Amino acid sequence: MRLPRTNTQKAKVLQFLQAGNRITPLHALHHFGVFRLAAIICNLRREGYDIDTIMVENGNGAKYASYKLNLDLPF
């Protein structure tokens, strides 16, 4: 059985989210070289991760997505 690679873009984004951080496309591009953050988020959701999308509006009226991993665990 092969172990999952830990140096992939998806793994880096997941680790960042698991640390309780929010991530935006611009942050993903600058820090992880990710051009298609939405595709990575889609794949993580398919794997069962509960990721919230928060739409953010900048001062010029442009909107972009910010993603946050839901870390709430049922008791």
SSE diagram, text form:
Layout: H1 9-18, E1 22-23, H2 25-32, H3 37-46, E2 51-57, E3 63-69
Antiparallel strand pairs: 1-3, 2-3
Write a structural description.
The protein is of the alpha+beta class. It has one domain. Helix content is 37%, strand content 21%. It has 3 helices and 3 strands; from the N terminus they run H-E-H-H-E-E. The protein has a 3-stranded antiparallel beta sheet. The longest helix has 10 residues. The relative contact order is 0.21. The model has no long low-confidence stretch (mean pLDDT 90).
Largest sheet: 3 strands, antiparallel
> What is the count of β-strands?
3
Total helices: the number is 3
Q: What does the average pLDDT come to?
A: 90
